[in-house]
Amino acid sequence: MTAYVLRRLFQMALALLGVSIIVFSLIHLVPGDPVRVALGTRFDPDVHAALTKRAGLDRPILVQYFSWLGDAVRGDLGVSFRSGQPVADLLFERLPATITLAVAALFVALLVSVPLGILSAVRSGSKLDYGATAASQVAVSVPDFWAGIMYILLFSLSLRWLPPSGYVSFSDDPVEWLKHLTLPALTIGLISGSILFRFIRSAVLEALHQPYTRTARAKGLTERQVIWSHVMPNAWIPIVTVVGLQLGFLLSGVIVVEVIFAWPGLGRLALLSVQDRDFTVLQGAVLLIAFVFLSVNLIVDLLYGYLDPRVRQK
Amino acid sequence: MTETLLDVRDLRVHFPIYSTGIRRKEVARVQAVDGVSLSIGAGETVGLVGESGCGKTTTGLAILRLVEPTDGSVSFDGDEVGNLSKGELRKLRKRAAMIFQDPFASLDPRMSIGDSISEPLLIHKLFPDRNDRIDRTCQLLEKVGLSPNYRDRFPHEFSGGQRQRVGIARALATEPDFVVCDEPIAALDVSIQAQVMNLLEDLQDELGLTYLFIAHDLSAVQHLSDRVAVMYLGRIAEVADRSQFSAGLKHPYAESLLSAVPIPDPHLERTRERILLEGDVASPLDPPPGCRFHTRCPYATERCSNEEPSLRDLGGGHQVACHLYD
Amino acid sequence: MTATSSRDDHYAGEPIAEHRSRLRATVDTILLNRLAVTGLIILLLLVIAAAIGPLVAPYGINEISIPDRLQGPSASHWFGTDDLGRDLFSRVIIGSRVSLMVGFIAVGIALLIGVPIGLASGFYGGAVDSWLMRLMDILFALPAILLAIAVLAVLGPGIGNAMIAIGIVYTPIFARITRGSVLTIKESVFVSAARSLGATDIRILRTHILPNVVAPITVQTSLSLAFAILAEAALSFLGLGVQPPDPAWGRMLAEGRGFFEQAPWMAIFPGLAIVITVMAFNFVGDGLRDALDPQQRSVIESRGQG
Amino acid sequence: MSDPVLSVNELTVSFGTRRGRAKVVNNFSYDVGEAETLAIVGESGSGKSVSSLALLQLLPTPPARVEGRALFRGADLISMTKSEIRGVRGNRVAMIFQDPMTSLNPVRTIGFQLMEPLKIHMGMSDTAARARAIELLDTVGIPSPGGRVDDYPHQFSGGMRQRVMIAMGISCSPDLLIADEATTALDVTTQAQILDEIRRLQEEMGLAVIWITHDLGVVAGIADRVVVLYGGSMMEESVIDQIFDERRHPYTRALLESVPVSGGDRPHRLKAIQGLPPDPTRLPPGCPFAPRCRHAVERCSNDAPRLRAPAEGHRVACHLDPADFHD
Amino acid sequence: MLFLAFALVASACSGDDGIDVSDAPADDTGDDDTSDDATGDDDSGDSRSGGVLLAAQGAEPDRLDPHLTSAFASFQVLENVYDTLVQPGADLSMEGALAESWEVSADNLTWTFTMRDGVTWHNGRAFTAADVEYSYNRILDPEAGAANAWRFGSVESVSAVDDTTLEIKVSRPTPNLLVSIGAFKGMAIVPREIVEDGTIDTQPVGTGPFKFVSSSPDQGIVLERNDDYWRADEGLPYLDGVTFTQIPDQTVKLTNLQTGEVDWVDTVPPQQLAGLEGDDSLVVMRVPGGDYHYFALNQNRPPFDNVLVRQAIATAINRGEIAEAAQFGAATANQAAIPAGTFWTYDYSPFPAADTDAAAALLDEAGVTDLTIEFLVSSEFPETVTQAEVIAAQLDAIGVAVEIRDVDFGTWLDVQGSGEFDAFMLSWIGNIDPDDFYYAQHHSDGGFNFQGYNNPDVDELLDAARVETDESARKALYEEAATAIIDDASYIYLYNPENINAWGANVQGYVVRGDNAVRFEETWLDG
Q1: What is the Cα E527 distance to its own chain's centre?
Q2: Which residues constitute the domain of residue B225?
């Protein structure tokens, strides 16, 4: 087990290295440099040269990369060219917002998908099944930003139930925190929930058709017992994988929603840093997102072992 | 015995198991086949019987080098199979074919049965002309009892028995000398098994084929084979020809295996004596030392757990690997 | 003895299933699926609209008329007009060309790169597999939109580069699915059978493995088409994607979002076009899945990327 | 015979398919007496499994439709309400399935699965059920059961899993045990162990058993009476010796002749049954076996033969008399 | 010396228009501005004080060092924290700020500023002329990386004579020095200590009406009232504080205003203006600003080096239609740069509107056929995309094809700098002095002359105008230069948009300024 985790961590480190190389290469291939953007339209060659030199951008690319990598390995992610602040500070003041949103969205997704998925599978072919399936088809087909703006116009502007945007931290005001969180979490949670719904439905359906389910029925268990004691413990295993993937994607894929809802998260920071060619921040943000994504995957795999005794034994 | 076509000496096939740590280390080996020796004469049928996991299928695959043997030698018609180049191996596969257990899985679902049968012809460039190839395919279909009209049909349109006939036709397309039949009837309905066994017999008579017939069903093996080899946990326990078989198997495992085969005769079933084995087969990951059967053997002695018995000839080619017969 | 049995003596019975080619069987299964048929009909209409769009569109797509701007749907402008007075109906109709092209070419790129990678990785295994798959994992771990944005920034915006960007984002999905299928098929008995007949690797790949991975790839293709259209919309929202004045739906929708209150039709009609098209692709994808490959689950992976 | 434990009367099971309704079991009637073992023999598609699943309402309805009656100790299983049949399942009537690999829930411990029926039907506490579970494992010959009760199915070999299934089946001391191809997936030496186990338990508990199999060898070893099914219809029913000795029905006869028997010199060619088992959606109008029957006459392909009783306790569905057979 | 508000920022551009729907409040504020005595009245001061204003910005400030940032969003904040030596008043003429008074030597080469008494930094330290000397030298030092050294093009030295006296020596007469140092917060005076301890970006310390408290992603940028503001005797600032939040999506930002989540927004999507008229809870105010929208053809590339081609295009377009399309009426079509209503206004319109025949004739004369122009625009400034689409349609009439190249602004700058373009389109905002309108853009040495305009006459005129201290003579020189620039179509001017902000009805005393500066010192909240 320890060996397995170590191996996975090693692979993760390699993947992160790969991510950093790709991001570094891309950002250096992109036209426009951070100094140019910072100077705006007014171009002063002296200032440009001075700033370029100060940021070390005049060194050969490989030197820049290895110097960055050397610092990064020691935990120093560098300084943002755009804001002059340490990248780590920028990332960690934004991380809670993104994690909050991703977890809340996942919560919404699970809240919708688990009961509906199970019910649809158990009553497969019923009106409920068709209705839920149709609704999930619609939900995954709507562009997320469109849905987000629709919610704002409906719930904020017309009904005045919820604030249209922004983020309040839980420690400041739990009620406002929840109010501000609801719409963005709903926007991506429902999309994610629709995907999960379809998956849970098929996983439950598959477990329902296994011989052990028949065995359970033959023992005289009620349908409820059959589902909760036998079908679901098996169905959770594939579901957990997908939930993990979804959480990973929610963490990395909330950019559009963060923009719409003025959510001060990592995605928006990453987007800004692309626009401003602020590559230290971009590096940091992408690495952090990739790290979280890979970690979630690792946790899911370990959870998989916990849920599935066949894996656990190995 | 006629001239030897296939000679297997001390064949071993081990599958390594690797650790999940950062560095891939071999932590264990599945000793699927561990020192099998067997020879088959031209035109002969040798049955290879044993229970699941005993290594009989792996032996069949290793003989055709469809899995790489870890050790040992396989010589086919005088050529050492392990030393063949890629091209020579292809030539071997023209002469030595295989029939698989599962007729539902062994045919490509996206290929018409005619294409499946003519595939070996294409591979070995046997009938370069398309029409000749079709003729040959039809002929093969006829030979295995299927109408040539169905050559454009797909596997899912046929029953298991019919598909197994297609598999046989494919194996015979290159006119091989030697066929490994890997449990060809196990997946078939009772009433169909006899059809396929009859077909295999007829084809042998007609084409002078040599069979290695692998099965877990002792009655079927014994029905078809000139000689029967019984395997247990990667090793051969006993080899006996038809008359020796009738006179009685000697190895305690072979004996108990035979006694466990149900006979469709209630009178016999009620009266016959059964040797019930205790426990389960040991794991090929960690086979017991000495005789591999000693953990379950009713006659096991101290010696059996220490010393590995080798196959010894009791006369007339009846070979047994048991210390009881030293 | 009857006549029947005499024939049975000769041949071992007739086929047990009626003769339908694999394709025919697939088509039949899809046609039985009402949603899949609906999806197919919608897609057919879309393709027709894209093909004959310029003939049926009542106005030019870039016919600007400021006095006529922001008009609601009417007899002369079925879907209303946009902020430059352009006829939205014409733009939505012609937009189907751009949107479908973005979808098809982007997914085509992902197919062309991803499938060979998956084939090589799954078939050869070992070091090739490790390296290729680690590379795909890295692409997978990168936030999709950021990756697309970065690719677009490098290549410069434009419809072609948008397609390349979306294509690169979807490449690992195709590589993974192909690899997964190849791993399963590689172990199947009929591949061993072919090998036992002396078939070379190339032959096995071409004749046995490739045709059998077509099913999951086809399913994934239709689902990815849906998500490629959504991806184009997301990129347009962020100001990248298709260049004006090409009327891609995503761009129209993104432009229309600023007019939700004054001219909701600017966002509603391109939005509906996207929703309906995406749904149609999903319907067809699900139908194909039922027909070809009941175990497929890649929808999860692909949408997650959106 | 005293009152039968189970009396099945005109059981008919059909499935709605794309090509219309397929009758998979057709007017199937039989009795099972106290402590008796009835073997139901048939090939795949003969309807033998479906007929037993129908007894415990374990078929999905729709697409299945079940007609007829199955009186178990006087109560009709087929028309029972859901909660009534649940009280019977696993309690009075237990079932063992073919594949011990998939019939046990892979993510639940053996103990959990064994304790379930004890808790449901006998109202046992956790501790009591656990103690009983260990006892049951011991009964079916699992070595050191106390240490294995918390293991998962994958830690057991195939034979041991089937023993667990049997332990589960007998846990509530049922009156009737239905074993559906219970040894088919096992190796012969393991099969011999399991058959032995069943025989022993049956003697100890006075259990009635329905043994469903395709293997005539197994039947010869275990059954008191045999029912032969083909194409959903009963071909023959009799006590065991009569079936094997008299071979009154051409199908029974052909089946016995097509099986190789160990021992002896190289025997003659097997007498194979030509053709294929029927497709339940396209059953022939007459005797289902007629198209493959080497003795079939004109009438066989038009009229379905009724069951007749040539001797006490022997029923055959064939127009012909063994004297008419011309081999 | 010149001042160029080069902050050509997206958020500002898209909202440079508005409808004057706020008669009553606007009048009120107008009164407040002019009647200084009102601020001395304690009662009215009390009624105007209190409250924390929530302001929504469309863009995110990048950094808070006024010398280093170039983001308009940063200046929206810093405008209220820092002061400059002088500052533009309501009419944009320069008034004293940190400097109370100033003198120019007879040779126009030495400027002497007298510092205001009793000014303290937010950290409590007294402000002195040394702070000015430090700040200006920091701007002048290229190593410091300030992007504003060019504003000191003529400055030879800056020195604090004593605590209250600062002397600036220039190499040539610099009539626009006051504009250069006062019209733009990039020339703010900063205290040495926060530069040296590195907190200038995270914890700015100024002398302005509001003190910086904190900046965080969830709470935005929080400013609080500076009780020791040098205008405290006037009761200023009224507000207890200002909090800036960032809402990138225009629609969502406006929704926040409509639902009362914020009190003030920096821009309003022009298409929303009409709809907002009926909303009593909001005030939308717009004023003509010094901004202009334009496009420029690359004169280093044929055929755009041919003045006839440029004139043809300038003739073919319909500026009214472009302004209407992009700004929904909140703009005035203009063929010259400087908007109407100021001293420097120059009304010159040589090109007929959408005269396709004349345009085609010009193209014929130039011998150009099959012309395709690639327009460099950026979605970060959405109106440039809209304008390009309209222009594409208009040029279609004379057979000129337009390809729109929409890139992100980072790339835009790169392409512009490399000269790899046919035409680019952008806007200039916040200009005050005529030098801001012409020198950098059209002088052959101009830092922003990316279109490659080279007219020795214009160079001469612009050089002369820079040092001309007589206003009328200076105006005449600029008009002569402007005539040539417009005739040569160095830039093709499109329109002057209006500056526009919107706020809740409870916000009082805020004025939209012609220079687009966001200043809350005289703002208060009702109830």
Answers
A1: 33
A2: 4-325
Say if residues A183 and A162 touch (Cβ distance below 8 Å).
yes
Chain B (19-78) residues lying within 8 Å, Cβ to Cβ, of chain C: 61, 64, 66
- Contact (Cβ atoms closer than 8 angstroms) between residue C196 and residue B97: yes
For every residue of E370-407, DSSP letters joined together read: S-EEEEEE-TTSHHHHHHHHHHHHHHHTTT-EEEEEE-
pLDDT digits (tens, 9 = 90+) for E465-479: 999 989 899 999 999
In this prediction the ipTM stands at 0.82
pLDDT tens-digit map of D61-77: 777 889 999 988 888 98
Provide the residue range defining the domain that includes E363: 292-498
The arrangement of secondary structure in A109-263, i.e. its CATH architecture, is: Orthogonal Bundle (1.10)
Number of domains in chain C: 1
Classify residue E134: in a domain, yes or no.
no
Q: Residue C153, by phi and psi: left (phi above 0), alpha (psi -120 to 50) or beta? A: alpha
Tell me which residue range forms the domain holding C14: 3-305
- Those chains having 3 or more beta-carbon pairs within 8 angstroms of chain A are B, C, D, E
Instruction: Return all residues near B22 (Cβ < 8 A) that are at least 6 apart.
Output: A3, A6, A7, A10
pLDDT tens-place string over residues A89-144: 999 988 989 989 999 999 999 999 999 999 999 988 888 988 998 899 888 888 88
CB contact under 8 A, E272 and C260: no
User: Is E315 inside any structural domain?
Assistant: yes
Q: How far apart are CA E395 and CA D14, in angstroms?
A: 76
Q: What is the DSSP letter of A86?
A: B
Mean pLDDT of E502-511: 91
Share of chain B above pLDDT 70, in %: 98
Report whether C126 contacts A251 (CB < 8 A).
no
pLDDT for the residue numbered E279: 83
Over residues E157-172, the pLDDT tens digits come to 999 999 999 999 999 9
* Pick from D191, D264, D272: CB nearest B246: D264
* Cα gap E489→E298, rounded to integer Å: 11
| Burial grade of E23 (CB within 10 A; 0-12, 13-18, 19 or more) | exposed
Q: Which residues of C touch B66 (CB under 8 A)?
A: 192, 195-196
What confidence score (pLDDT) does residue B220 get? Answer: 85
Name the most confidently modeled range: C55-59, C94-98, D19-23, E493-497: E493-497
Identify residue D269 by its one-letter amino acid code: R
- Pair D208, D176: CB distance under 8 Å: yes
Task: State how many domains chain E has.
Answer: 1
Q: How many domains does chain B have?
A: 1
Do B161 and D276 lie within an 8 Å CB cutoff?
yes
Per-residue exposure over E190-204, b if at least 16 CB sit within 10 Å of its own CB, e if not: bbeebbeeeebbbbb
Residues in CB range of C112: below 8 A, 6 or more apart: none
Q: What stretch of H or E contains C133?
A: helix C126-141
Q: Is the residue at E506 inside a domain?
A: no
**Residue E105 to residue E123: CA distance in whole angstroms:** 35
Report H helices in E94-161. Answer: 129-140
Distance from CA of A222 to the nearest CA of D (A): 7
d(CA D275, CA A282): 71
Q: Characterize the bridge pairing of strands E52-57 and E264-265.
A: parallel
Q: What confidence category does residue E20 fall into, taking pLDDT thresholds of 50, 70 and 90?
A: very low
What is the overall mean pLDDT for chain A? Answer: 86
C-alpha span between B186 and B218 (Å, rounded):
11
Name the 3-class secondary structure at E428: strand
CATH (domain of C60): 1.10.3720.10
Task: Tell me if chain E has a CB within 8 Å of the CB of C60.
Answer: no
- For chain A, domain boundaries: 109-263
CA D125 from centroid of its chain's CA atoms: 33
